[in-house]
Amino acid sequence: MNILIAILALNLIVIVHELGHYLVAKGFNIKVLEFSLFFGPKLFSVKKGETIYSLRLFPVGAFVQLEGEEEASLSARAFSNKPLAARAAVVAAGPLMNFLTAMLFLAIAFLIGGYSSNLLETVPPGSPAAQAGLQRGDRIISYDGKRVYQPADFFTLLMINQGKPSIVEYQRGKEKRQTLLAPYVVTEERYILGFGAREPYGEDSTIIEYILPGSPAEQAGLLPGDRIISLDQDPVRNKQELTAYLHRRNGEPVTVTFRRAGEERQVTIQPRLEKGAAYYDTGLSFQVVRGDFWGTILQPPVYMYSTLRSVLYTLGWLFTGKVSITELAGPVRIVSIMSEAVSQSPTVGLILLNLLNISALIGMAIGATNLLPLPALDGGRLLLLGLEGLRGKPLPPEKEAAISMLGFVLLMSLGIFVLFNDLIQLIRG
């Protein structure tokens, strides 16, 4: 059921895109031959006026077929015979429809659940943020020289910088300040005892809140409430020092001294190697704003600009190697992400809220990707129309066909790679 809801939501984003092409084509009196939901053999079709509306077998996507779009036509209503501005408007309408729908989804989601602001919520004592002098209520302005429009920008830049110390600009009251923030780096391979701490930082981060089942800590008999004092007689003041010591010992057994009910005890534990993606922690969280009507209405355009900027950044990071191409998500992983959001939502209201947020994000990504100046994408078609405007005449049909075919082959190759990459990432978990 969760996967079905996710597939329907993803299809809605694609259908909205094609609906944009359809509506603007109708507005310019271009003959629409067919508007189809999904691909493959027809299951059902009905002709209304001059347009065939069809439902096809494979429940993925949609398409619009315009007269004169792929073949020569003498009709004055053919796409190819319309003025350059009209054709450009029809091509651009798909991504634009994605952007408008995304902003509508965001506005609804923000009005219901609020939106994340740049104001800091909590700054745990002992955290990297606290050590940098940041406080609750500070407003983050930039990270490593790049403007931060929303918390997602902050965390993206934090990840791309791979935890290196970076200058953070922030506002406190009416005063703008700068500080050096050195995130806590958790490596891909780390040795663990297998407990959750009462607090993420500070003295109470050595107090055990819970024990992971089957962990070295459980096997050694540690219990919630125990406070770890030292490892091999070396005092540990917080969990970060504990983790660093285990890393230095490279998995060798350690003697753990802990206090239980005022009594000091010792036990020897063999740490366990855990592998996962590296991450970088600052201790920061951001305030969620609710009830600010005008702020909520103005937030979707800001959110969209931030997201589109991230798409451009990501393309640059792909070429510089800061982001691996294996991190690109295709339709399989997108459906998986949406399905997970549905499954983790305890109420129907939260399901809808999560779907609105994720659908808006994916809709913006699809719209932005379609505007890339690559053959077979809307952006590539707009580029060809721009060249036509500069030349004063269209490209020869054989050249345009060759460019489109090259783009199609490249997109299919990328699509196949992303599909297999999605499957591999899902299998790996």
Outline:
With 429 residues, this protein is of the alpha+beta class. It has helices at 2-27, 84-113, 128-131, 151-160, 216-219, 239-249, 293-320, 331-343, 348-370, 378-391, 397-428; strands at 32-48, 51-66, 115-120, 139-143, 146-147, 166-172, 175-181, 184-186, 189-192, 195-197, 208-211, 227-231, 234-235, 254-260, 263-269, 272-275, 279-281, 286-289.
Q: What order do the SSEs take from the amino end to the carboxyl end, as H and E?
A: HEEHEHEEHEEEEEEHEEHEEEEEHHHHH
Tell me the span between the first and last alpha carbons: 20 Å
Mean pLDDT: 85
Broad structural category: alpha+beta
Anisotropy-based shape: elongated
Q: Major β-sheet, in short?
A: 4 strands, antiparallel
Radius of gyration: 27 Å
Low-confidence stretches: none
Name the helicity range. Answer: 40-55%
For the largest beta sheet, what order do the strands appear in spatially? 5-4-6-7
- Helix tally equals 11
**Proportion in β-strands:** 15-25%
Secondary structure: elements and pairs:
Elements: H1 2-27, E1 32-48, E2 51-66, H2 84-113, E3 115-120, H3 128-131, E4 139-143, E5 146-147, H4 151-160, E6 166-172, E7 175-181, E8 184-186, E9 189-192, E10 195-197, E11 208-211, H5 216-219, E12 227-231, E13 234-235, H6 239-249, E14 254-260, E15 263-269, E16 272-275, E17 279-281, E18 286-289, H7 293-320, H8 331-343, H9 348-370, H10 378-391, H11 397-428
Antiparallel strand pairs: 1-2, 3-18, 4-5, 4-6, 6-7, 8-17, 9-16, 10-11, 12-13, 12-14, 14-15
